What we know:
Blueprint: H1 3-10, H2 23-27, H3 39-52, E1 62-66, E2 71-74, H4 76-91, E3 101-105, H5 110-122, E4 125-128, H6 135-145, E5 149-153, H7 157-164, E6 172-176, E7 185-186, H8 187-193, E8 208-213, E9 223-227, H9 228-232, H10 236-242, E10 250-253, H11 260-272, E11 276-281, H12 287-296, E12 301-304, H13 306-312, E13 327-331, H14 337-347, E14 351-356, E15 362-365, E16 376-380, E17 386-389, E18 402-407, E19 419-420, H15 424-429, E20 431-432, E21 435-444, E22 449-455, E23 460-462, E24 465-467, H16 469-477, E25 482-492, E26 496-505, H17 514-528, E27 537-540, H18 554-561
Parallel strand pairs: 1-11, 3-4, 3-5, 5-6, 6-7, 10-11, 10-12, 12-13, 13-14, 26-27
Antiparallel strand pairs: 1-2, 8-9, 9-19, 14-15, 15-16, 16-22, 17-18, 18-21, 20-21, 21-22, 23-24, 25-26
Helix pairs in contact: 1-3, 3-4, 4-5, 4-8, 6-7, 10-11
Bound molecules: adenosine-5'-triphosphate and magnesium ion (MG).
Magnesium ion binds next to loops.
Amino acid sequence: SSVTEVLRISWHRVSIPQNFTDYESIKQYNPQIPENFNFAKDVLDVWAEQEKRGQRADGPALWWVNDRKEEVRWSFDELGFHSRRLANVLSGVCSLNQQDRVFLVLPKVPEWWLVNVACLRTGTVLLPGTYQLTARDILHRLQTSRARCVITDESLAPVLDSVASQCSSLQHKLLVSPTKRDGWMNFGDLLRNASSDHECVNTRSDDPMTIFFTSGTTGSPKMTQHSHSSYGIGLTVNGRYWLDLTERDVLWNTSDTGWAKSAWSSVFAPWTQGACVFIHHMPRFNSHTVLETLSNYPITTFCTAPTAYRMLVQEDLSKYHFNTLQHCLSAGEPINPDVMRKWKDATGLDIYEGYGQTETVLIAGTFKGMKINAGSFGKASPAYDVQVVDEAGNVLPRGVEGNIGIRVKPHKPFCLFTEYTDDLVRTAECYVGDFYLTGDRGRMDQDGYLWFEGRADDVILSAGYRIGPFEVENALIEHQAVAESAVVSSPDPIRGEVVKAFVVLTPEYKSQDQDQLVKKLQTHVKEVTAPYKYPRKIEFVEQLPKTISGKIRRVELRNKEWGRS
Ligand code: ATP
Ligand code: MG
């Protein structure tokens, strides 16, 4: 079977919708998922076969570079070769069985991708954690997940050792490093000595495949479990429709390895399409390096977070020429229309927005060929029937604000998470009536575009009005003084709560009179949006609290305002 055949099984009723008004018929689909599915065998190995027969366009499956001009390029065949050796390490020396959990904490090094594929081959469940975890985070994750094996590098190994004795399930520690460490097996040595003969295990489509942690924007991160088909087949929708990839494309997605977005856009989505995954491993985000990389490598497709675009548009973009870049995408948070405009003015390219969660694949997006409505994240993805519903799960009329939900009856979409691991109560709380509730609020307009209002917790209720922080933030960023901002509710003796903005100033405005600036910004917001939304309080700050994936943690600012811990 060819890759496309396998993936077509699931989307057989989804023809590429050139005309996005055909959506109604697509949304009701009930795909036939094969009983067994394994992304390594059914997709990656098939690409490798096609490569050998000269049936896939030239170009690597993985192209990795770093700041020291080191480079790794693997074809699908090479990816297969290395990952099969690693699979033998996992099931041999580490004696891991199918469904045992492997905790992986590495920065963006090629080994991270090998572990991803080797876990698929052995049927072990991969738990990627972000590289910036503290000892406490790691302990918590190891204990709750009962992981049997951990894979990390020399910087985090001591942190791991400091908590390992409290993790009774943990049996094997693999070190990715040229150096040795007591109590640890060396990843590279084991790999070199392992055989590359490995037969991929049989996995059922609904067997657990991965557990990703949510970003922790609203509280502590939740362990979110997905099956083999959920991401493995479900993310086809991201690859084909949203990222618009083919075998000839080179996709650079900048997200952290601990974030589900890296499974989305750095593993499954591009490889469903046979595209090349490009990675630039930089110690920390650097606008200049990003822009240079986009100019110097044949990247066709670029996907990053709004926070990164906000930084990039502060640079002099006219100094760079992106010769191969064709398609730019943003997800994870709302992208400001002002930033989209600036990016387009400088590069000629639109930013296509995507909306989804660790729990899902793409829920909605702006797809190539579709009219872009800045401020809306687009229309429902073919994967789901998305509706705006009330607290009881009743579908609300177009234009009315409510909860963004995904229909789960009569058929629960296969590409929705299985559960929050070991937390049935929390899992059950997400479902109301026929819907899974995202926890986000918004509305759908007459044309089917979805407009985000905010996370349910972030919406501000002031003097009878409901105010989404994003609208106020969008208004603020249009002013030259504002680099970025976060808007939250703040207590007020008369109104109960009022709008407060935390503002990071652009360099030119840092030394200006702050009282005057407050007035100017307030007037500005009143002019560009409904006046009741203007921030009655403004505080200037050097930076905003953010998650590792770069999302603004409004909850932290809000708690401070309300004197909560
Ligand atoms: P936690 O659930 O731990 O609080 P999180 O919800 O940020 O963290 P993720 O699963 O990484 O964890 O993010 C999904 C959320 O990100 C969505 O529910 C939504 O609130 C937000 N989001 C993602 N994309 C967009 C977008 N394009 N526009 C607005 N919000 C978005
Ligand atoms: Mg969430």
